[in-house]
Amino acid sequence: MPPKSLHVENIVKDLPDKPGVYQYYDKEGKLLYVGKAKNLKKRVSSYFTRDGSLTGKVKILVQKIEDIRFIVVDTELDALLLENNLIKKYQPRYNVMLKDDKTYPWICIKNEPFPRIFPTRSLVKDGSEYFGPYASGKMMHTVLDLIRQLYPLRTCSLNLSETNIRQKKFKVCLEYHIGNCKGPCEGLQAQEEYQQTLNEIRQIIKGNISTVRQGLTAMMKQSAADYQFEKAQFLKEKIELLDRYQSKSAVVNPSIHNVDVFSYCDDISSAYVNFMKVINGCIIQSHTLELKKRLDESPAELLTLAVTELRNRFQSDAREIVVPFALDVEMEGITTAIPIRGDKKALLELSERNAKFYRIEKNKQLERVDPERHTKRIMAQMQSDLRLKTEPLRIECFDNSNIQGAYPVAAMVVFSNGKPDKQEYRHFNIKTVEGPDDFASMEEVIFRRYRRLLDEEKPLPQLVVIDGGKGQLSSAMTSLTKLGLNGKVDVIGIAKKLEEIYKPGDSIPLYIDKKSETLRIIQQIRDEAHRFGITHHRKRREKGTIKTQLTDIDGIGFSTAQSLLWKFRSVKKISEASLEELQAVVGKAKAGIVYGYFHREGRRENGEEGNG
Predict the structure, then answer these.
(1) Which residues contact 280 (CB under 8 A, 6 or more apart)?
(2) Angstrom distance (rounded) from CA 130 to CA 124
(3) What is the CATH number of domain 259-366?
(4) Is 188 in contact with 218 (CB distance < 8 Å)?
(5) Top-level class of domain 6-94
(6) In degrees, to the nearest 5, what angle opens at C-alpha 216 toward C-alphas 215 and 218?
(7) pTM over 0.70
(8) What does the alpha-carbon distance between residue 21 and residue 604 come to, in Å, rounded to a whole number?
């Protein structure tokens, strides 16, 4: 695909072989797309030279490009950071969209004498310290509650300057009398003691529980050695409180310190990256970011973008990150781990569960709020997962049922827009096959079904699902080929044991994520076909069994025969029953007919006994 204009062509030719950021603009000067590159010339040129490999969205983007601008930077990491900032600022139409760009709470240590500690969503540049942000308000308040239980701190907004305290402008309040404050407003607590408390609090907020615990333990032992047993007991209670908090937070080996964990999952329209901050084996922060896909971004590109955004947003200084696969960019000074076992692997799996749970919850909300959009998303996902030509708006699934070849039947169930359409369900009694031959039965049913649709000029389904492996699938394809439908309808087979998906002409099965919505719907339609077929087979078997022994009697129908068999369990016992016993089950008239049939004189001589 050549450039649209000489202007664009000249820009592409003159691009430097350096890292940087490129920006595409349309004829109205509107920013369409921002991208990063390790080599600007190679990256931008690739958009105009990949004739057959560009997807629909990328082709549309390239057709709209009328101007290209670029910014050269020193490293690829600098390009990534700049790209992230430009995307957040301008939100170009064809870029990944970072969702949930809301304000998160922080813990503030106020820049004032005897600083207060409180939660806030506003960052004021007045010299105060801010810790966070916290993706979970619950997690932040848990930390604040621990601090309040450990340390008596002032909560009032008084100006506790040395002059005001010296002039005795303030009086202690109720917080002092109940032990929540040591009364710095009346000079009852020294500034040095208060600052020592703040130093310990900073360590707790940062997750360095062990450091604070060691200090408290040393103080406790010293107090006990000095016979200050009440103080030692007080410090012991603080240590126990810290231990309880840490035991609830610790998930892995405490030696895993200051590590960021990132996991990734996606669907057809979005990617989800979960971030966890781990300090001393404790998760102190967790957040999931949704990225709306715009072009065909690779998982590595999306994960790299999310890692950059989350580390910036939560101001992480971790020098090690744990990821499921390699990033698109090497981050200078940061070690990347892709674990395959051990504690870090356990952390990564926990993060992945959080990302998938977030995705499930988002999809449930979408289904409640906008069912039509939810259905479109699932159809698009199934088309992608199963590699179909079109979205499977109508799916027909077939299953055979027989017991050692007796009463062979088949069932067809229909799903429209991913949901059962029971009015379209159909049963088939096998007509041309003798004995237990699933392959021949499937061939007959498929031929009959789609021959009828062709004759009646009715629309074909987008997807046919065969309950079975390669053998049943091959039989179905034989019939479709005879009808000239090979290649006009997507067909798959699903094998029961390993839930393997087979496609015509491909001996290697298609494996789909066991927890994906696509496999769940395929399993649901397969199980529904099995249930529907078994139910019909059972009814036909019961009907056939009863017909040969009871329903040949004039005046006795299927329901009467069934009632008698439920009560007496066999035809022999029915023939031996008294008239009164039969009347108790089916009434006088029907009982008289049945009793007369089995006790009529001359019955044996006429050869009628064998029919019963």
Answers:
(1) 207, 208, 209, 210, 246, 250, 254, 256, 257
(2) 9
(3) 3.30.420
(4) no
(5) alpha beta
(6) 65
(7) no
(8) 100
